[in-house]
Every structure is written in C-alpha cells, then in structure tokens.
Amino acid sequence: MRASVLVAVASRHGATREIAEAVGASLRRSGLEATVIDLDQATDRAIDVADHDAVVLGSAIYMGRWRRSARDFVEANRSALAARPLWLFSSGPLGDPPEPAEDHAVELDDLIADLMPYEHRIFTGRLDRAALGVREKAVVRIVKAPEGDFRDWDEIFDWARSITEALRGDAIEGRSGGLTDGAT
Length: 184
Ligand SMILES: Cc1cc2nc3c(=O)[nH]c(=O)nc-3n(C[C@H](O)[C@H](O)[C@H](O)COP(=O)(O)O)c2cc1C
Hints:
The chain is α/β, with parallel strands linked by helices. The chain has a single domain (4-170), classed as Rossmann fold, CATH 3.40.50. Helix content is 36%, strand content 21%. The protein is built from eight helices and eight strands. Strands 1, 2, 3, 4, 5 and 6 form a six-stranded mixed beta sheet that branches. A two-stranded antiparallel sheet has the order 7-8. A hairpin with a 2-residue loop joins strand 3 (54-62) and strand 4 (65-66). The relative contact order is 0.19. Bound molecules: flavin mononucleotide. Flavin mononucleotide (FMN) is lined by residues 11-17, 60-64, 91-94, 100, 105, 125-127, 132, 136, 139-140.
C-alpha cells in the first residue's frame, strides 16, 4: 500500500498554497500519494485526517500568527495530528536577508506544543502589493516590507524530499508502525 500524505495549507494571497502544491507534487513524484487541501475552503476542511498516514501542514504568517483556518484545523484535529508523522511549514519573511528573522516570524509554541512535529520549517514568502487590501497595504507601508517573490524553490523541493526520505526510513517507526510506499 502506498503511504498517503495529507498536505493542508492556509493561504491568503496564494504564495503558501503554491508551496503546498510543490510539496505535494514532489511527494507524488517520489511514489507517495499526496492530497493537497485548502483550509480556507469549507469542503476541503471536511477531509478526515484519519484517512491519511502522515500530514504536512502549512500557513502563511500574518502579524506573527498562522491564519485562523490553520489554527482552527489544529484545534479540530489535535489528537489525529499528534498520532501521525507531522511536518509544519510557514511562509512569511520577505527580503534578502529575510525579515523578520526566523525567531521572530511566527509564534506557534502554544498551538503546537503537544503535536511533536518532525520539523517546523519557515520559508521566505511573496508580497505582491497590488493584491493587498487597504489595511494590508497600510501595514506593509508602516513596516516597510519589501515587495517581491522571495520563495526559494530549491529549498522547498529539498525539504519535500527530506519528508519522503523520512517516511520511507526508520524515522517514523514507533509513531505509526512504519509506512510503505509503492516506489520501494
Ligand atoms: C499585512 C501583512 C502582514 C504580514 N505579517 C507577517 C509577519 O508577521 N511575519 C512574517 O514573517 N511575514 C508576514 N507577512 C508576509 C506574508 O506572510 C508573506 O507575504 C506570505 O508569503 C504570504 O502568503 P500567502 O500569499 O499565502 O497569503 C505579512 C504580509 C502582510 C501583507
């Protein structure tokens, strides 16, 4: 049986959704099953985490927090997430060097404390000023956020490959009883 990975994402302007889609595509190329869901769509939120062997969960960062849809997803599925191999990612910091620095980009400790993810990776994001609402434009003007697409696709694909390797290896034994996939 091929391992089935749920890739769930909360995105406002699409940059983080594209990262999730890239992760899903990479997992599929490696022979895993990957289902990418958009947590801002009610129909997608209805998906049952228990139907999947592992979860990758990501959100855009706004004002130092994950989007509400991602936080609600964690609360609604806490025990199922804690029982599966779990990887988290955030998309936020902008510029070169990226700001804010990783330590200050997002506050997640309380939300994820008992989930014990394998990793929480913070990716640089994208800011397209033309797509922002009035209040968002005001915020980015005040903090002087740099405009542009700072996503590092090599880093994103490397990360996705590391997830495949972990799912194929011994790293998850004991947590889910081990996974298999069709490619090995
Ligand atoms: C109003 C506003 C507030 C933001 N706040 C943060 C923040 O606190 N920390 C951070 O790292 N990035 C912050 N960002 C950057 C976004 O998280 C980044 O552009 C992200 O890639 C957007 O993802 P999305 O297109 O999926 O919504 C902010 C962007 C906007 C427009």
